[in-house]
Request: fold
Amino acid sequence: MGSFQVAASDPFRTNMRSRSEEYNLGAELAAAPPAQVTRNPEPVDFEKLLGDLSAAFIRTSVEEIDLEIERWLERIVLAMEVDRSTIVQVDPAEGFLYATHQWARPGVSTVDRSLRVMDASKFFPWLTGQALSGELVVISRLEDLPPEASTDQATFRRVGNKSNVTVPLRIGGVVVGAVLFGTILSEKAWSEKEVQRLKLVAEVFGNALERKRVEGEIRRLSEELRQVSQVVTMGELTASLAHELNQPLTAILNNSEAALQLLTAKSPDLKEVAGALEDIVRDNTRAVEIVRSVRALFQREKPKTGSVDVSELLRDVHRIASATARMKSISLMMEVPESSPQVRGNKTHLTQAVLNLVFNAFDSVCESGGPREVALRAGGNELGYVRVSVRDSGKGIDPKIMPHLFEPFFTTKPAGMGMGLAIVRSIIENLGGQIGATNNPDRGATMEFELPVEPNAQHTG
Amino acid sequence: MPREKKVVDTRSPATVLVVDDDPSVLSSLNRLISASGFHVKAFGKPSELLASEIPKSNACMVVDIDMPEMTGIDMCEVLKASGRGLPAILITGRTDARTRLLAAQSDSVAVLFKPFNQAPLLEAICRAVALSIRDGSAI
Reply:
């Protein structure tokens, strides 16, 4: 990191532009502060403070990082005997430099939060250039600024600065802004030691902001992938559902035309006509059921929680998956009690979770080259939990990958995104449940989850 | 038309063998084709049809493509390989490129995509039966 130290002598002082021009710039900035600023005279163990600062950001959650930075700006300002500190960052979308964090002593002006979005590089063009090219700039007196920094100097005067240190802010090794420390009350001859400390402070802030940026990115990416993976599942299902719907529709059409044909006979076989009509009603019910299960699966609504009958849920899953099972020559068995205890949750999410496990099992048995059997089971246990399991006769799970099975982005499938089981886990855990995987003693694996039984639901059956 | 030209007695109704693994579709086809005056034999699995007695003439098949045991196309191939082939009409609920290609490459009389109307089905059955009479009489 290079550093730009302006000489204490002042050869550039006469090169300033006219005052009126300067004052138009930065008109949004607050006026110069009143002079009744007092400083804390207590000596501070700065090395200890730096240690606390680093430790604090290790513990801070991503949501709290911004708040924690402003809390620490306060402590640093007080400890370093300066009056105001500001962090500016480049907005990657706009290319703007804007104030993201600030703290100032009482009585010292600050940039109003609503004005933080403005482009700071307009008011500090020279300093912005220095900071973004990685230069650390120490200004002990405003008169030390070079002539090309006249706009910067005017802005400093306007906001009341008498001295300033600007440390480039690096996130992931790239300069993305700067941390500014300023004095208002008096000019300050910054020592090398003080500047060094401010560099360390800026480094800690940079690391914290990097963590925030990375986690925000992961969160956004996960959400995108979650939606993509739902679309993929939908695509896989659409083909088999179209096939599934075609069957009752074909039967309905055939029976209708058969009934018409029968009625054209001289002495119509009315018993056969009645049979056709009864079958039409039955197949229509079947088609409606299929449509209903699709609608329940893909409706984009705010997740509503309610009582969910686990047996009914598994019957839905079985109905949706059976077309695919048939196509892939998989025997899909189901063992559920007539009526199981209710759990509290969102039925659509739970259906997707179980479907995901079932489709994973399908993939496993198809890859194994062995028998193609998948069994779906539900049952209660004495501890107030409902247990759902999906057992397959596939290739089993490599013990080496078992610990990573439910981690996001973990996949063994060439085309997989590795989000399926992570989403399933989040659905189950959000409902207070647990999920796990085990290899079967004979062959294949079993995925199993438990959900707490809803306390006040009636258990019929 | 002078009767002596025909080897097969066409006064007896032609037989239509129907195979579909979906019970609703199978029974509805049975009812529809029967109502149109044919003698129908319905099978829920290819293996049941393969194990049954196949007419040599005056008959045809209506065969679902997508069945778990074997595809309808494969079943027709098995029958033909054992010298018991019959003209077939393929039916399917799938319209994807692969199914269309497989169906087009088979030597079926017609391919009907579910759901289909009575008219094209009967038209195809009549053509298939005519073919079986021609081929059967040639033996």
